[in-house]
Amino acid sequence: MKTDYAMDEVQKKTNSFLGVSDLTDNKLIWRQLVAELVGTFLLVAIGVASCITINAGSSPQTTSIAICFGLLVGSIVLLEIFICIDDNKI
What we know:
- By secondary structure, the chain is mainly alpha-helical.
- The protein has a domain of 57 residues.
- The protein is built from four helices and no strands.
- α3 runs antiparallel to α4.
- The longest helix is centred in the last third of the chain and has 22 residues.
- The protein is elongated, with a radius of gyration of 22 Å.
- The relative contact order is 0.09.
């Protein structure tokens, strides 16, 4: 019986070390993961879209790309503040 107890302790330490307990103990993990996925998708999709040119002669300026990324991050922060998408704070 002593060996089973020691094995349970090793398993608990292993689960806490690997972060399994973070996934199983947190009840809002799926909501947080979806919010992270949507935010990352918006940042990458809109950010990359600001770098694409339709005509060869009209390439986007560095300033317009920077403004696009800045407005996007600002709008995500406003969504975070006013709608409370996630329980975590920035």
